[in-house]
Amino acid sequence: MSQTAEPIRCNWASADPLYQSYHDDEWGYPVSNDTRLFEKLCLEGFQSGLSWLTILKKRENFRAAFAGFDIAKVAAFDEADIERLLGDAGIVRHRGKIVSTINNANRTLEIIAEFGSLAAYIWRFEPTPDQRPDDYSWETLRKIAIVPASVTLSKDLKKRGFSFVGPTTCYAFMQAMGMVNDHIETCHCRARAEAERAKFARPA
């Protein structure tokens, strides 16, 4: 009996089933839910200096530790919570990143008060077509770490008091939340992600 051929995926999606599931079902598909956006932004910050697979394997622990990334709840975390999190072996125990997450939750509440939602604010920074490559091969995409829109988003977030939001982190966030479709041309998810982006109603 012949085996079903494995679908073609982006080169970074390794043989790890967790990585494949994340790639196939999440990465590159547009998101408008504030809790999910906040989680993705926080986890991209925690990933800085580490592999994304490390973060992905700890994601359920992160969710438990950070109250499901409920923005208001995380914003209310205090020094006791910081000490609790520093003692949690299930997450990345980095004081700076933990404190940053709490700070960023407070800054996110300010954005929601101003724009109505985090999504309405974030989607304002969607890259224009001229910022996107013509060639969606792995050789091209692996060289793209930032785009002008991710630099602008990074600067604006920092101006608002956010931390761990450099241009590279912001671009990885844009990729993860579907603000750009960086599935390679031959990836079996590219057309689906493009279709999802085409019908997605950008938050006003």
From TrEMBL:
<dbReference type="GO" id="GO:0006284">
    <property type="term" value="P:base-excision repair"/>
</dbReference>
<feature type="binding site">
    <location>
        <position position="183"/>
    </location>
    <ligand>
        <name>Zn(2+)</name>
    </ligand>
</feature>
<dbReference type="InterPro" id="IPR004597">
    <property type="entry name" value="Tag"/>
</dbReference>
<dbReference type="InterPro" id="IPR052891">
    <property type="entry name" value="DNA-3mA_glycosylase"/>
</dbReference>
<feature type="binding site">
    <location>
        <position position="10"/>
    </location>
    <ligand>
        <name>Zn(2+)</name>
    </ligand>
</feature>
<dbReference type="GO" id="GO:0046872">
    <property type="term" value="F:metal ion binding"/>
</dbReference>
<dbReference type="Pfam" id="PF03352">
    <property type="entry name" value="Adenine_glyco"/>
</dbReference>
<dbReference type="GO" id="GO:0008725">
    <property type="term" value="F:DNA-3-methyladenine glycosylase activity"/>
</dbReference>
<keyword id="KW-0862">Zinc</keyword>
<feature type="binding site">
    <location>
        <position position="187"/>
    </location>
    <ligand>
        <name>Zn(2+)</name>
    </ligand>
</feature>
<feature type="binding site">
    <location>
        <position position="23"/>
    </location>
    <ligand>
        <name>Zn(2+)</name>
    </ligand>
</feature>
<dbReference type="InterPro" id="IPR011257">
    <property type="entry name" value="DNA_glycosylase"/>
</dbReference>
<dbReference type="InterPro" id="IPR005019">
    <property type="entry name" value="Adenine_glyco"/>
</dbReference>
<protein>
    <submittedName>
        <fullName>3-methyladenine DNA glycosylase</fullName>
    </submittedName>
</protein>
<keyword id="KW-0479">Metal-binding</keyword>
